[in-house]
Every structure is written in C-alpha cells, then in structure tokens.
C-alpha cells in the first residue's frame, strides 16, 4: 500500500498511529493507521484483506506515493480469531511475571548499583546526601558526578521532589499551525480593533424561539448564526475586509466563505461554511453542527478546511474575556468572539446591567485601513444589537422559518 494524496498541495504525511500490529490479519477498508498532514488527520483504510507487514514506524514522515505496508492477500483468514486473541491474552498474563523476572535478572541490581564515582562521592559528602537518595544513571547503576549534582537541593527545596519532564513530538498539523502563526506575525501588518456588543436582543430572541426552532429544525438556535449573518452583511459593505493579497495584487471576493475555528482532538481545525451569505439561520446552524461533529470525530477533510475568505473564532466557550486573534492566512481579517458577562452600561442616561460581549477584529493593515476595520466592526455590532431590523428584514418568524 502506498500513501494516498490527501490534497494537491500535500507532499508528505506523518504516521501518527498504527491501529494494527505487524502480522495482523486485516479486512478490506479496515482503518489500519492514522496519518497527519499539515492540514488534517486522516484514517488510512486497508486496500485489501490479508496479513499486514508494516514498513514504517509511528512518527515517520513518508512521502505521498511511498510504500508504508504490505498486505499478503494470499494469506488465509484465521479461524476463531477472537478466541485465539482471548487465549493469547491469558497466556500473556500467565507468562508475563516470568518474563519480568528474567528481564530483572539480566538487567537487575549488581554490585556496582549505587556505588559513586570519586567526584560524585565528594559532592555527596559535602552536601550530606546519602547514596540511597540518588539514582545512578551510569553503567550498571553507578552514580555519576551529574547524578550527584542533580541531587543537590536548591535553597528552600526538599530532597527527592519530582523533577521529571516529558517530551512529546508535535504532530505535523501542530507544527504547520505553528509555522503559519509565526509567518503571520512576521509577514503581515497585523492590528486589532475592539468593541462591545449588548447581547440583550439576541438573548430575547433565543428565549422566545429557541425551543420552537430546535423542535422544528433539529438544531439549536445558537449565537454563531447571528454572528455569521452579521459578518456576511458587513463584508458586503466593506469588501476590502473580504480580500487577500496575492503578490502585488489584491483579490476581492464577491462571496463569503466563512471559516469557523473549532477545537478538535488533534488541535485547532478551521472548516469552512461555503457561500454563507446565501444561508438562512437554519442553514448556518446545520452546517456549523455538521462541521463541528466531523472535526470532533477526526473526519474533517482538507477540502472542507480550504478556501475561506474570513474567519470567526470563539474563545468565549473557554472563558476568554478579551484576546487579539491571529489572522488565518492567506485571509486578511478574523473576528474574535468572547464570553458574555453581565456588566453595568449606560442606557438612556441610566446605568443598567446587560449581557455584554467584547469583540475583536484583527486585520492586515496593508490592505485594510483603519476606517474600514473600525467601520466593519461597528457594522457587526449594529446588526447584533438590532438583529430583527438588520438580519431579519423586520420579519422574525420568516427569518427563523417558524
């Protein structure tokens, strides 16, 4: 079996995890491995049934088209495989202690274990450290000078405290995300503008229609549909925010493909809602739910995360009050949502308590001026604070298809 191409721009993948062992019998279309590309994690299905021989290790980077395993299709399917596995487990549980004892006898304690080198003994004597308190890492368990130095406590520190550390290799997806984020900071003139939104009108609409909406459409009436509608409206009014640089040219789109940042098992995923400007509240909520489930289950594809023109990210679900979101290249702007907190605000000359959300727009100042960025965010605020007029054409029931 060769590594299939996850997308036209991807030249290599990384073996994240083998789901089978060398010598196992696999069925056709059975998932045998998870592979990481720089955009997504995908399952690798067996192309045929037979006995598998692995040709790559977990963590290996392999080129698209490279052989990663062999499947012997002439191998007979084992009979009673489940019973054989159970028997194997019983045998392993019985023999494991014996094997452990054999390993201990070959790699166990010797006369050298715990003995210190002259330099190590001098340090231990000066600091009053007993040999029993030091784990030797030298040959046959000898205590080296480095072991003794590490055992010396710092001021106010207790001897024998946990000083361990864990090294974990970053997945290809996480490494690519890191590279992209650094490149954005280095290659764009990124600025962020802020505003606040009184969420009272949206709270009232959801309180009135939430249950009916879910009962009729099978999805919840969440905040994302309101924000997506407000963003697509503002993008039409400020087209430079819906643009991106390509060399010496600026490309402006007449459609709104909205990327939605969601947290997946392998890290941040950014699936795209295509032509969001054409979708109703119901259509947006259905698409958000579909993409979120696919991202959560690790089924999202490269195509579903490619080609967005603007991104919305919601740090509020994790409790973020305010942040400066980083642009998702090659896009030129991103809207950050945050948590909703009851705050005192002035209304009609009086101080009242209202559910307030801080919003942030990070943008590339090379093609978006301050006037456009501030105007865009004010337009989003305007739509969210009066959604019935600006997002529903003064017909709430029709807009929600009630």
Question: Mind sketching the topology for me?
Answer:
Elements: E1 12-18, E2 25-26, E3 31-36, E4 41-45, E5 50-54, E6 61-63, E7 69-72, H1 81-107, H2 118-127, H3 145-151, H4 172-187, E8 190-198, H5 200-217, H6 223-237, E9 243-246, E10 249-252, E11 258-264, E12 267-269, E13 272-273, H7 281-296, E14 310-314, E15 333-337, E16 340-347, E17 350-364, H8 370-385, H9 387-390, H10 396-399
Helix pairs in contact: 2-3, 6-7, 6-8
Could you walk me through the main structural features you see in this protein, from its secondary elements to its overall organization?
The chain is of the alpha+beta class and about 400 residues long. The protein has three domains: about 10-70, RNA polymerase II/Efflux pump adaptor protein, barrel-sandwich hybrid domain (OB fold (Dihydrolipoamide Acetyltransferase, E2P), Beta Barrel); about 110-155, Dihydrolipoamide Transferase; about 175-400, Chloramphenicol acetyltransferase-like domain (Chloramphenicol Acetyltransferase, 2-Layer Sandwich). The chain contains ten helices and 17 strands. The protein has helices at about 80-105, 120-125, 145-150, 170-185, 200-215, 225-235, 280-295, 370-385, 385-390, 395-400; strands at about 10-20, 25, 30-35, 40-45, 50-55, 60-65, 70, 190-200, 245, 250, 260-265, 265-270, 270-275, 310-315, 335, 340-345, 350-365. The strands form four sheets. Strands 8, 11, 12, 13, 14, 15, 16 and 17 form an eight-stranded mixed β-sheet that branches. A hairpin with a 2-residue loop joins strand 9 (about 245) and strand 10. Helix 2 (about 120-125) runs parallel beside helix 3. The two termini are about 50 Å apart.
């Amino acid at each position: 079996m060769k590594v299939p191409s996850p997308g036209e721009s991807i030249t290599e993948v990384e073996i994240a995890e083998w789901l089978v062992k060398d010598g196992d019998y696999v069925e056709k279309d059975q998932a045998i491995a998870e592979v990481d590309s720089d955009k997504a994690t995908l399952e690798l299905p067996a192309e045929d049934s037979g006995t598998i021989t692995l040709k790559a290790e977990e963590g290996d980077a392999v080129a698209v088209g490279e052989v990663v395993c062999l499947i012997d299709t002439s191998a007979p399917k084992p009979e009673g495989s489940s019973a054989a596995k159970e028997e194997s487990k019983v045998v392993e549980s019985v023999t494991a202690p014996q094997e452990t004892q054999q390993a201990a006898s070959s790699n166990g304690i010797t006369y050298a274990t715990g003995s210190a080198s002259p330099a190590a003994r001098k340090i231990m004597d000066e600091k009053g450290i007993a040999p029993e308190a030091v784990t030797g890492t030298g040959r046959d368990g000898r205590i080296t000078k480095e072991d003794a130095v590490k055992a010396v406590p710092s001021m106010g520190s207790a001897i024998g405290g946990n000083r361990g550390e864990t090294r974990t290799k970053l997945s290809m997806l996480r490494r690519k995300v890191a590279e992209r984020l650094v490149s954005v900071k280095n290659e764009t003139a990124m600025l962020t503008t802020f505003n606040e939104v009184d969420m009272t009108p949206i709270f009232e609409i959801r309180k009135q229609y939430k249950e009916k909406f879910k009962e009729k459409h099978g999805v919840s009436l969440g905040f994302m549909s309101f924000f997506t509608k407000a963003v697509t409206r503002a993008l039409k009014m400020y087209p430079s925010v819906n643009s991106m640089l390509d060399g010496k040219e600026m490309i402006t789109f007449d459609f709104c493909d909205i990327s939605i940042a969601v947290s997946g098992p392998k890290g941040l995923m950014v699936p795209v809602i295509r032509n969001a400007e054409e979708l109703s509240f119901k259509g947006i909520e259905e698409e958000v739910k579909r993409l979120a489930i696919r991202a959560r289950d690790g089924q999202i594809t490269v195509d579903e995360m490619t080609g967005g023109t603007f991104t919305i990210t919601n740090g509020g679900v994790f409790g973020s009050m305010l942040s400066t979101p980083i642009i998702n290249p090659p896009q030129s702007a991103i809207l950050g949502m945050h948590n909703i907190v009851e705050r005192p605000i002035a209304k009609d000359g009086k101080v009242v308590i209202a559910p307030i959300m801080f919003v942030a727009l990070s943008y590339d100042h090379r093609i978006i001026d301050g006037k456009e960025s501030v105007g865009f965010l004010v337009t989003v605020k305007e739509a969210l604070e009066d959604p019935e007029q600006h997002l529903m054409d003064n017909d709430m029931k029709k807009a929600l298809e009630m």
